[in-house]
Every structure is written in C-alpha cells, then in structure tokens.
Amino acid sequence: MLDTKDCSNKVAIEMSDFKPEIREIFYFKRTDGTVDFEYWYEDILDLACWYSGNCFKTEEEALKSDIDVRLKAIFKTKSTDATATQQAIAGDDGYISCLREAQRENTLLREEINAMNQKMADVTKENHLLKEELSLR
Asked: What is the C-alpha R_g of the chain?
C-alpha cells in the first residue's frame, strides 16, 4: 500500500512556467503517459499540477514532457505487490490522497477560524451592550 501519511515525498519541486487564467484550459500528463485537460479554477488539484511541473498550455507540450516518468518516481510504494504498484502509478492514489487530506484539513481550520471570529464578534457586541447599559445608569 502507499504510505499516504507521509506526504513529504509526494510533491516535486519544479513549477510549471505556464500558469493558466481562471476558466482557461490546461493540459496535464497522467502517470500512465496519457494526456488530459481541465479548466483552471486554482483549486488544490490545479495548483498541485502547476507546482509539480505538470501544467501545460497545449496537449503537444504535455505529450513531449517527461513528467510521467518523474511522477512514477514520486509514487513509489513500499509494497512489492505489482497490482498495488500499478494502481498507485495509474491512479495517483498517494499524491491525490495527500492533497485531499490537506484540503480537508484547511477546510476544518477555516471553519474553526470562522467560528472563533463569530464568537469574538458576539463577545464584542455583548461588551458594547454592557457599556451602553453602564452609561445609562
């Protein structure tokens, strides 16, 4: 099985030169060598493609790239099971799992911050009301 708990070895360090505009099509190469496209919305998966150097303006650029070879190196498994290795390479399991886990964690942190901000607003409002009440006495 893939070690999805340690994501440190899942992200390449070379960013793509091309960064699409919102709703612009970009191409990326899967670990099996096929090329696919998406519309850029700058979500976590789009940014993962860009940060890992797997974001291309044209299908031809993606086809010429050796990014699939680099991605295969990233998706090393600890298992000797050929099926698990093949699934990891074809399905991007570990990399996408790490990204989704990071996205979930960010969402939870945002929710926690929003809840704290709401509590702070409530306390501030309560303090303001108490000050008004004191000034009327």
From this structure: 22
- Least Cα distance to 45 among 92, 8, 89, 82 occurs for 92
Residue 29: in which H helix or E strand, if any?
A: strand 25-29
Give the span between the Cα atoms of 50 and 112, in whole angstroms: 29
Residue 2 has a pLDDT of 34
Report d(CA 19, CA 90) in Å as an integer: 25
d(CA 71, CA 11): 9
pLDDT tens for each residue of 7-57 = 444 444 467 889 999 999 999 888 778 899 999 998 888 888 888 888 999
3-state secondary structure of 126: helix
Q: How far apart are CA 132 and CA 14, in angstroms?
A: 58
pTM of the model: 0.48
